[in-house]
UniProtKB/TrEMBL annotation:
Active site residues per record: H709
GO MF annotations in UniProt: 5-methyltetrahydropteroyltriglutamate-homocysteine S-methyltransferase activity
Binding site residues for L-methionine: I446, G447, S448, E499, D614
Protein name according to UniProt: 5-methyltetrahydropteroyltriglutamate--homocysteine methyltransferase
EC assignment: 2.1.1.14
Enzyme class: transferase
Binding positions (Zn(2+)): H656, C658, E680, C741
Domain Cobalamin-independent methionine synthase MetE N-terminal residue range list: 13-323
Length: 769
């Protein structure tokens, strides 16, 4: 394939870069500041050093225009809240006293003041702090962070483009402030917000910005006509400003749909569009509006969310098509590189030939630069890169890690019936009641028990070789003995082994499944200074040996009460890993489901009568566009049923989800065909029970009665009152008694006291029935 050189030389750019530094220096500096060990000046110096190093690295790699303002001490949406002066009332004093401490108070709360709510940034695993707005919100521009960072980059002699959260997305991500009517629509504040953006843009222009990027990812979700009209109005206003940089409106994570014609017509100088997963839809929509004559198009052709090497020829083909559609086409990743780790070459434990299949932020940067060069100078100029790329892709496609014929044969042979229990729910409950002999309002927990320092020390001792496997396992058995004996004494009905052996609910399984890769340095920001290292679903998945059976059976050997087996479900395994880009997600889910099915069946064969398959991620991976949701929910629920469909009617399948709002997926929850579901509810005062009832949910449910996010011990009376509330919505035959999830993050004293109170509450109510 050859590409003719573009008329104007294509430029390489990125929208954002990992913030933490090679050795997570930023995390250390910020946490040191919180503990009083690092001064504000030292923190600022570390931050400026990291920003400078990132820009230099980008520039040396050949990126023509570096992003500024994407850096953050905690979160870029919180930075935007500061930029527009929307500091919540309760934080104003702290912010006024010390801007930095006030900033962290908004992010994390203090002894006296609650933080802003945190929620997921679209369908990524990054979390942002939700702006709180109301009719009385007064915006005021504070461009200092944006201007400072722009000047830093310009001082280094770099061409730089400030990146801001756009005004429409900012308002669409906001929620009504406490005390404001729940139906308050933050978008009604648009006309008040725009002059603030105008001021910031003018300041950036004065500081030397030629371009500014306004990120509007909210426009890839379904938007009402009114929201699209607001978008149109916003960009007509900003476009009409005379004292401003050129504007690049960026979208990512999905297709723009009806928002594309709105932006295409807007008086802005450029659009940045995602041409990875949504490539076809965005290409068609762009062609349908006649392209972007006179505008700059930044084409996100390198996937900013996966960790796989790009198919350069495929990207070049997309870029070739785009050349006819805009005045100038530049090359970028589909979104900020914040969502991928920094550098694949740091992975020393992964075989070098496999490292070449991977592209983290640094490698993606190189791909962007290569593509821009290819676009500007013709493919001949990047012949060496193209041939190396072809070799990497071929090595991956042909590797036995990628394709395991046995797994393929097994997945291909799956039938409808495999994903169905042998008896419908209504019939198997009788078998389960008879088999388990549980009281009304049975008590249980969600799986983990406090992860003590001893457990964590044992794990690091094992890793460091200070103890051997036998020594480690003996310590885990000791934990299990303690957990079982406590639960028996406390009088819980369905016990758990406590998950002491698990470092993390996904990683633990990933390490034992063939086809998964683990990274040593693949950290990605989850929120604030919390970074996670998602494992990589690299190839066809299989389970060489049982993963949890011996721990569960050991626990069961210590007690006559049923011990619940505990697994992470297939959807959550996908959601909290990096997924494959070479087969549909549904196929990967099915492979993981079959591996987990073997575990479920082995648990049952070993005498486990209750098995919980956690799916906390079922809702968070819902596609951004509602039109895509039925297909997703179809394969996701099928994967769960495939995992659990092989057990006898008398074996009880539980599932668990960590949230109180699930009205939009309650049908899908029913489709899981689980016997019992536990949900987080303590904070919402059993709202979930009412919601389940309102949707006619026919199965057993355990809304949490102990808020595990707080060290506070709920009294037996309090738990009793919550159960009474629950009973108003669900009949006693279908109500379970359990805490919210996450006991592993709590200490033993409050766990003990709370669970004892919870059992007392269940007994009180049973006595009244
Ligand atoms: N079984 C897990 C636990 O109790 C569930 C964790 C979760 O809900 N995220 O820790
Ligand atoms: Zn949970």
């Amino acid at each position: 394939m050859t590409t003719k050189p573009a008329a104007a030389a294509a430029r390489a750019t990125v929208y954002g870069y990992p913030r933490q530094g090679r050795n997570r220096e930023l995390k250390k500096a910020i946490e040191g500041y919180w503990k009083g060990r690092v001064t504000a000046d030292a923190l600022e110096a570390t931050a400026a050093g990291l920003r400078g190093a990132n820009w230099q690295q980008l520039a040396e790699a050949g990126v023509h225009e570096v992003p500024t303002g994407d850096f953050s001490y905690y979160d870029h949406v919180l930075d935007t809240t500061v930029m527009v002066g929307a500091i919540p009332e309760r934080h104003r004093a702290a912010v006024g006293t010390d801007a930095l401490d006030g900033y962290f108070a908004m992010a994390r709360g203090t002894q006296d003041v609650a933080p802003l709510e945190m929620t997921k940034w679209f369908d990524t695993n990054y979390h942002y702090l939700v702006p709180e707005l109301g009719p009385d919100t007064v915006f005021a521009a504070d461009s200092s962070k944006q201007v400072t960072e722009l000047k830093e980059a310009l001082t280094l002699g770099l061409s730089a483009r400030p990146v801001l959260v756009g005004p429409v997305t900012y308002l669409l991500l906001a929620k009504p402030a406490p005390g404001v009517a729940a139906d308050f629509d933050p978008l009604t504040l648009l006309d008040r917000l725009l002059p603030v953006y105008a001021e910031v843009l003018a300041d950036l222009r004065a500081a030397g910005a030629e371009w500014a990027q306004l990120d509007e990812p909210a426009l890839v979700q379904d938007r009402t006509r009114a929201e699209l009209d607001a978008t149109e109005r916003a960009y007509r206003y900003l476009g009409a400003l005379t004292d401003r940089p050129k504007l690049l409106v960026a979208s990512y994570f999905d297709r723009l749909g009806d928002a594309l014609p709105v932006l295409a017509k807007a008086p802005v100088e450029g659009l940045a569009v995602d041409f990875t997963e949504a490539a076809a839809a965005n290409l068609d929509a762009l062609a349908a509006v006649g392209g972007l004559p006179g505008k700059r198009l930044v084409a996100g052709v390198v996937n900013g969310r996966n960790i796989w090497v790009n198919d350069l020829e495929k990207s070049l083909a997309v870029l070739g098509t785009l050349l006819g559609l805009a005045d100038r086409v530049d090359v970028a990743a589909s979104c900020s590189l914040l969502h991928v780790p920094l550098d694949a070459t740091a992975e020393r434990d992964i075989a070098p030939q496999i490292v070449r299949w991977l592209a983290f932020a640094r490698q993606k940067t190189d791909e962007i630069v290569t593509l821009a060069n290819g676009l500007a100078r013709g493919t001949g100029a990047i012949a060496a890169e193209l041939s190396a790329n072809r070799a990497h892709l071929a090595s991956r496609a042909g590797s036995p890690i990628t394709v395991d014929p046995a797994v393929r044969a097994r997945t291909a042979a799956v039938t409808e019936a495999d994903a169905r229990r042998s008896q419908p729910y209504a019939e198997r409950t009788a078998a389960q009641r008879a088999h388990l002999g549980l009281p009304l309002l049975p008590t249980t927990t969600i799986g983990s028990f406090p992860q003590t320092t001893e457990v964590r020390t044992a794990r690091s001792d094992l890793r460091a070789g200070r103890i051997d496997t036998a020594g480690y396992e003996e310590r885990i058995r000791g934990e299990i003995r303690e957990v079982i004996s406590f639960q028996e004494k406390a009088g819980l009905d369905v016990l758990v082994h406590g998950e002491a052996e698990r470092n993390d609910m996904v990683q633990y399984f990933a390490e034992q499944l063939t086809g998964y890769l683990a990274t040593q340095h693949g950290w990605v920001q989850s929120y604030g200074t919390r970074y996670v290292r998602p494992p990589i679903l690299a190839g066809d998945i299989s389970r060489p040996a049982p993963m949890t059976v011996r721990w569960t059976t050991y626990a069961q050997s210590l007690t006559d009460r049923p011990v619940k087996g505990m697994l992470t479900g297939p959807v959550t395994m996908l959601a909290w890993s990096f997924v494959r880009d070479d087969q549909p997600l549904a196929d990967t889910a099915r492979q993981v489901a079959l591996a987990l099915r073997d575990e479920v069946n082995d648990l049952e064969a070993a005498g486990t009568s209750v098995i919980q398959v956690d799916e906390p991620a079922l809702r968070e991976t819902l596609p951004l566009r509602t039109a895509d949701r039925p297909v997703y929910l179809g394969w996701a629920t099928e994967a769960f049923r495939l995992t659990t469909g092989g057990v006898r009617p008398a074996t009880q399948i539980h599932t668990h989800m960590c949230y109180a709002e699930f009205g939009d997926i309650v049908e899908a929850i029913d489709d899981l065909d689980a016997d019992v579901i536990s949900l987080e509810a303590a904070r919402s005062h059993m709202q979930v029970a009412r919601e389940l009832a309102a949707h006619g949910y026919p199965r057993e449910a355990g809304p949490g009665v102990y808020d595990i996010h707080s060290p506070r011990v709920p009294s037996a009376e309090e738990a009793t009152a919550l159960l009474r509330t629950g009973l108003q919505a669900l009949p006693a035959e279908r109500l379970w008694v359990n805490p919210d999830c996450g006991l592993k993050t709590r200490g033993w004293p409050e766990t003990r006291a709370s669970l004892e109170n919870l059992v007392a509450a269940a007994r009180t109510i049973r006595g009244e029935l």
